[in-house]
Fold each of these.
Amino acid sequence: MSKKTIISLLFFIPLFISLIITVGYPLIYTFCLSFFKKDVTTLIPSFYWLNNYIGVLTDETFYIVLQNTLVWTVLNLILTFSIGFLLALILKDENLKGIKIFRIILIIPWAISVPAYMSWKWLMNSDYGFFNELLVKLRLTNKYIPWLNDPNLVLLACIIGNVWHMFPYMSTMLLAGLQAVPPELYDSAEIDGATKLKKFIYITIPQIKPTIFVSTTLYLIWTMNSFVPYVFFPGGLGHRAETFPIYIYKLFFTSFNFGRGAAAATLLFLINLSLAMIYMKILKLEW
Amino acid sequence: MNTYRYDLWKIFEILIKYSVLLIMSFFALLPLFWMVLTSIRPLEEVFSIPPTPFIKNITWENYLYIFSDNRFQRYFLNSTVVSLSSALISTLIATLAGYGFSRFKFKNKERLFLSVIFCQMIPLTVIIMPLYYIMEQYKLLDTYFSLILSYFIITLPFSTWMSRAAFTNVPIELEEAAQIDGCDKFRSILLISMRIAAPAIAAIFAFCFIEAWNEYVLAMTFINSTSMRTIQIGIMLFRGEFYTDWGKLMAASTIASIPIIILFIFIQKYFVSGLARGAIKR
């Protein structure tokens, strides 16, 4: 190797060593562990074929958790996307006075997580919660809603918190996409006498379609792996606020069933892998 | 007549836009507003029924408590040490690699870069158990180092991406010109490219700092003892003796949030353009 190659390698070595230690090696380890029996009772892990996977797939809680994860992911996506898209369309309007200030205000929730979730918990308190008081004042309900106590509502409470944290991400990404649409397209459509709605359907949507796909896929990956319900309810509340990553985490660190946890983690990884593949496809980042 | 109707429609549209903006701003600021409000109220006002946003008395008692409580002092110290060192090391590594990715030509470069981006999409839960073993084996549990090391996962991929973009924006001709003028390779990188990319590198540092400061999954896994907790975990597990003291909790939350929000507002331009660049075009 020439001196030049060695010097160039020096630029990459720190990055790759760090990523191999923190990501590469653990990833392979988890995959291998998923085929072994390893829990608190076993001293030496023994080969367990696919029994860990069978264990996960025959676990009743797994299906409750899967259902929660589906509700969690889909509701988050729908809410975050609609709010984000609507805001991006409005924030694009440079003619509105004070639009720069609104752009800054509406990005703030993205900056903080745990402290804000605690504040949401306090806002949703069933006796002293101001959020409830607000809903009553706005005549949306006539009595306080027990967001954090009613098993049917706990996941919704987490979703409100998460949408609050993530809508700035969506609006910012979509705004950047909207701003990248060449203005000439709108100008020429205007000459042809196109209405606002037509311009939106035939220019805006096709132009920002790649941005929409990329930002929603990334969002799906982040949301599916989110620990937000855990921050809201570290205790667990049965399984009502438990999503897939939390289920895995509990298999590892509460039931100490490492083999089965690894199997569940591998399943989650495969779901994420397919999403990531779509992401890379859209970006046209071929291997 | 026609223009008159057009104007009415225009005004209506502007009204709609402003009301959406105002409603969403209210939603965005509500938890922060309530956090600050709760933290400066006396206890009996915190637990008033019905809850009211109108404040009668202001007290700094909660802040005095948080600042003098040695647990919270420790949490803030822990978070600061971990976030600063992890941001510093991550920025260094990412700057080096980003420079390499933008300047050097070699086989499979794109593939290598993609595998770095790919690391960002691997769920923490998938790798957390083996990481725990590693930490246990090398007696790293309950140390700053365990967090500094594991925060690489969340900071490195994106900051490498940002730094590659930053150096790609610096024309290589500038470096070459400096070398013709008698600068050696190393000095030309340091004096020309680094200097031009400096704002972006500062943004990377801030990004890593924010990510590390806000992280809680790894922090709650690798840290067992109370004295090593970061502020996020301190807040998450804060419990009073008989009931949750929301005034104190919200004071701690406010202190943990305000610097981050200010930092974030300063860097959001770079941060957003980095993200958007990845989403819109290559």
Amino acid sequence: MGLDIRWPIGLMFTLIGVLLVITGLVNGADARSLNLNINLWWGGVMLVFGVLMLLGALRGKKNPPVN
Amino acid sequence: MQPIHLAWVDYTILLAYVAFVVGIGWALARYMKTSSDFLTSARSIPTWVTGLAFISANLGAMELVGMAASGAKYGIATSHFYWVGAIPAMVFLAVFMMPFYYGSRARSAPEYLKMRFDERVRFLNAGAWAVMTIFMSGIAMNLLAKLLHLLLNWDYGWSLWLCSAVVLLYVLKGGLTSAIYTEVLQFFMIVLGFTPVVWLGLKDVGGWTVLKGQLAGVAQNPAALALNDKTFDPNAWSSAWKPLLAGPDHNPMGVDWFAMIFGLGFVLSFGYWCCNFLVVQRAMAAKNMTAARNTPLVAAIPKMLFPVIVILPGMIAIALGSLPAKNYRIPPPIVSQESYAKAIDAVRSVKPSVADPGVTTVGTALGKKVYADRVEALISANVNNKLTDVQIKDGLYNCIAENDYDSVIPSLVEKYCPPGLLALALTALLASFMSGMAGNITAFNTVWTYDLYQSYRRLVLDRPRPATIIRADGKSEDVTFTLKDLGDAHYLWMGKVVTVVGTLLSIACAYFASHYSNAMDVVQLVFGFVNAPGFATFLLGMFWKRTTSSGAFYGLIGGIATSAVFHSLTLATGNLPGIKGGYLHVVKEYSSEMAQNFWLAAFAFIVCFLLTVVISLATRQTKSDEELKGLVYSLTPKIKDENQPWYQRPPIVGTVLIIACVILNFIFW
């Protein structure tokens, strides 16, 4: 199908990653998450995942698969 | 649990997810030109996408919530549903069965049965499927709406209609492809959303070694957490095989190893993974035979590791419950405000004496089983009415000696997630419920359009009809004619119409399920009757060319009847005869419902298998060898894949996966 799924996955997780990182920076650590700033750390992980997906999609666009 | 208040970041993340799934539907809409695009994705999707969708269709919310519940109830032995009850069957599907599903160019699993046997077998299978998918999606939506009501205090009806509308919107726009794409999105949401919750929980308990130590304590006195009335050896919650081999009285599941391996590992597991159209449909949407065969294998890798995300939370929950300092319990079943008020009165008014400390009075007022020592402590703490209503209510909450195991996941999310992460976990939950509905709706519209509607048209309406024409010169001539063939556009239209109808029916089922909880048990039970014997039909059809259509049809009916009879004659200890079985006469009593289910599946399979063989030998084969080419193992040329790299060859990858699975079983032996 014409749409490369890596675009929506990459965009969504980049967005959520950024949102979590901002929340982490603004709110700081929370007692609920054992005084770890889990939003910041996990937001970072999701941001990296999202960007990797976007890079994959970009590469796929440059080298379309041969059918 | 108190309703959770969402912060702006939580709403943003929830809305972003909804916007993305609807956006995917819109982006795909322009590719939906034929019924095949809409209902079968025109067989165009790469392996990793179908693989993740395959596993995601299985990892619905009910699996997520239910497996965490089982993790609490039964401990690490729950992983048998993965390492015994899934991986071998997935490998078998990839290596042996996929060539027939994909190679026959059938558009659905019932259509394979039509090609291999005849319309009768297809109708039986497709009819059961159509009803089942609607009920399953209804059950999922009912649970979702209930959960949203409980967690966020959203209105039940609004939640139900809103979530269904989102699902309808993207399925109607993008068809099966839309459903598959959102399933992949859901896969990542669940993995990324629940990993931090599990990690925080494990860290809070004190790590794996402490967890195992706590579970050993729990196993010796599970009544302290209202888990089980019996006592077990220390390893009952932390070893997968030793308690099983020791016998049904030594493991909290109450099953023996034969029922586990044959009932679950063979019949139920192969019946689900190899014949369940909901998952098989994902593999059938792959772009070529190699991709189709590799789909279940790609799916098997995450499936093997999922116990960490889905079973471990249950184990963490009981370890937390056994550590008083953590101030955690698995939430009890919901108690109404009226019952709480009555129980508070009881606590205040009861006159404790040595003979009757007042436990029964409070328990009756609350309408639940209670821990006697905690009620006594609460009553004596309230001497001279020292406590406020709120304090007594909190005390009563902790006195309830029953667990609502399905709340394990939501309660851990609530305990560990600050705003932000909270939305991620909630969205993952929401995503899995919605894609569960989407998966069932897309299976339903395909089965309805191709297997019920189109086959009915072709049999009845489009059948050639004889007619006599009288010409102008007075001579008459015999001709045949057919009603006008409606062409593909009609079936695309029908696929869309039935998507809307299916969604509405699911909503109706959700309301139905919310009003009659027993009715849902009946429905699930009846589907259990149909599923177990079905595997025998597919297995014989694919691997024994002598199987005849009549053999398959009557064998299947015999298998279903066996399930019903078996159920009416057996009962699990502790259950009353009725919906749980034994309503005719209790011939055999099993130590748990799970054992009863496993044995039922085993019996139904064996009867269906033997009946099909016997009737096939007694009846004439109606299909020629030429017609069965590509449908039966011995008449189909072997697939040559020697020139493919090893990781593209299903037999090799499958063997590696089985070895990895065996190793996992030994590690947690």
